[in-house]
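Annex B. Sample input.
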Amino acid sequence: MPKVSFVMPTRNRLEWIGESISSNLAQTVEDIELVIVNDASDDGTKEFLDEWAAKFSRVKIIHNEQRMGGGRSRNIGMQAASSDIIATCDDDDLSCDTRAELIIKHFDLNPKSELVTFPYVSIGYCNEKLEEFDGEPFDHEGFLNGGNTYFSNPSSAVRKSSALELGGYEPETDDETDDIQFLRKWVKAGKKVDFQPGYFVNFHRVLPNSMMVKHRGWDPNWLKPK
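Annex B, continued. Sample output.
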């Protein structure tokens, strides 16, 4: 039984997903699995993922026959995961090799914790570092009142049982991403978002066609290495 299940929805990310898979498998602890939900890709991703699954027993692949979207695909992956601790992943990001170790440590030290988010580093096309996000404790009241507060879904981990109890992630819309909808539902239910400072756990890739850029805008300066 793995201690952490990395869950990654993907669609047409053949250019990036191989490096992302490698980073999630190269953890400092071996008690992990990687569940990838292929959301009806048509760029060769399906065949590429099947090759990974044939070589690595810790990789579990699920192919959606039709497009379900990122939110529903995350739920499918969580339901198929063997561990109750889910590390949420994007298909173009890179996990630090200590990510699973830090997640396990957090939940061991905080057995009542259900959702935790960590600091992260944003990167560009060629893995150049763009910005570091040290993060801060989550402002639950401020979030419900429409304020901006720190939360990074790709650098978070959640208890599978707690997430599915609330119905999991919602389908993304033109106005809102699936993770923010899930977060609002989580906070309205009176659940806590924990923050674990001190260590970066992933490198979050910023691309012009990403969902984050769609909602927050694109800054050409992000392409200039710092």
